[in-house]
Amino acid sequence: MTNGFSSIHFSLFSFYLKLITMLQISYIRENKDLVINGLKKRNFKELELVEEAISLDENRRLIQTKLDNALAESNKLSKEIGTLMKEGKRQEAEVAKAQTADLKEQIKQYSASLEETVNALNNILYRIPNIPNAIVPEGKTAEDNLTVFQAGEIPHLFEGALPHWELAKKYNIIDFELGVKLTGAGFPVYKDKGAKLQRALISYFLDKNTEAGYQEYQVPHMVNQDSGYGTGQLPDKEGQMYHVQIDNLYLIPTAEVPVTNIFRDVILSESDLPIRCTAYTPCFRREAGSYGAHVRGLNRLHQFDKVEIVRIDKPEHSYKSLDEMLDHVEGLLKKLELPYHILRLCGGDISFTAALCYDFEVWSAAQKRWLEVSSVSNFESYQANRLHCRFRHAEDKKIELCHTLNGSALALPRIVAAIIENNQTPEGIRVPKVLVPYCGFEMLDDKMD
């Protein structure tokens, strides 16, 4: 680990505790106090769901026992009927047949009751978020996130420097008003050198990801309901996702959803792990934002481009993978010459599915504020449990849940905002050196390419 953050932060690989936080009902039942305390750390308001889940599970197990006993008795009687018929004991056989008919009706009722109970239990389990890792800070909002590392020189702009939405208009590289005409607010149109800068960033990120061992995928931009439930966007983020109702498909909020779902209902070999994937996709989010400068321009969009990295790993190696992903994202920001800091998210700000999450933010010189450009998360076995994503150990052939991880490498809008604000000069906007071979020009200006 050669980058700054990894050389100073606590090694999560050595910290890893063998706690299965997939929130299987067996785990909740056996670790109720730990689960409740973890949910309190998240400021989760529906703690009663834990008791409801345990109660439903007790009922489920009771019904399952009755069903199993009825099935066993029915099978036993069926064999006895055959024997009695062979022995000519027809009257006794008829009595046994009547008992079998009664048992079949009981089995039907138990099966229906079991299905209803299991569905009710699953609906509750889907509403319970992951348990935060022990090193997740206490806190309620983003203000309580912990800054763990900062690097890069904060630029001081010349008098008259502009925010990115004014620069975009001045140099005719992003047209926000045209986006409103075509679709609505939050759907900008990139033009000429602005469009080429977008393409350059996408290609650069993908190239760097594949060089680091990530296999590139091109995935659908819509997913079915099972995929949304698999990675935890449903039901938690249903109101924030664009839903094509006639087909019951969802526009993806991130490539994490289709890429991770590639491994849904799959049993991997231990030798396959860790699996590394990367994909570029547009991302769609309905989330309503407040008004003001902090959401102007590229700061918050309903459609934006992002390059994602995903890992599937063994539990004992997943925090080593998290370290490597953090190093990788940090390296990208260094190459783009952007000042950045890294935050460990507090319990109240961490996502529904994550056990531990780090945010990368870059400095926006004209706005004089930090902008989030990447979240890197370890979900431990939470997503894998929903996905039924497992691996088979090489030696004893035991099957175990995988751990899943993902991160932005990187999200484009705020990267673009920081690049054009931080690198503006009276003559135009300097393009970071690493991007020049990709876009074919050194300056974003009003000269036609």
Which spans of ≥5 residues are poorly predicted at pLDDT below 50?
6-22
Residues in helix, % = 40-55%
For the biggest sheet, the summary is:
8 strands, mixed
Order of strands across the biggest sheet? 1-11-12-13-16-10-9-4
Total number of strands: 19
Q: By helix and strand content, what is the structural category?
A: alpha+beta
Give the DSSP E fraction (strand runs of 2 or more residues): 15-25%
Shape: elongated
- Count of alpha and pi helical runs: 15
Q: Roughly how many Å is the radius of gyration? A: 27 Å
Gap between N and C termini, in Å? 40 Å
Q: What is the mean predicted local confidence, pLDDT?
A: 91
Fold and architecture overview:
This protein is α+β, with helices and mostly antiparallel strands and 449 residues long. The protein has 15 helices and 19 strands. The protein has helices spanning 4-8, 12-15, 25-30, 32-41, 48-86, 90-125, 164-170, 176-182, 193-211, 225-231, 256-261, 318-335, 382-387, 412-422, 436-439, and strands at residues 146-151, 174-175, 189-190, 215-217, 222-223, 243-244, 249-251, 267-269, 275-284, 303-313, 340-344, 356-364, 369-378, 390-392, 399-401, 403-411, 424-425, 428-430, 443-444. The longest helix is centred in the first third of the chain and has 39 residues, at 48-86.
Keywords:
449 residues; eight-stranded mixed sheet; elongated
SSE inventory with pairings:
Elements: H1 4-8, H2 12-15, H3 25-30, H4 32-41, H5 48-86, H6 90-125, E1 146-151, H7 164-170, E2 174-175, H8 176-182, E3 189-190, H9 193-211, E4 215-217, E5 222-223, H10 225-231, E6 243-244, E7 249-251, H11 256-261, E8 267-269, E9 275-284, E10 303-313, H12 318-335, E11 340-344, E12 356-364, E13 369-378, H13 382-387, E14 390-392, E15 399-401, E16 403-411, H14 412-422, E17 424-425, E18 428-430, H15 436-439, E19 443-444
Parallel strand pairs: 4-9, 8-14
Antiparallel strand pairs: 1-11, 2-3, 5-7, 6-7, 9-10, 10-16, 11-12, 12-13, 13-16, 14-15, 17-18, 18-19
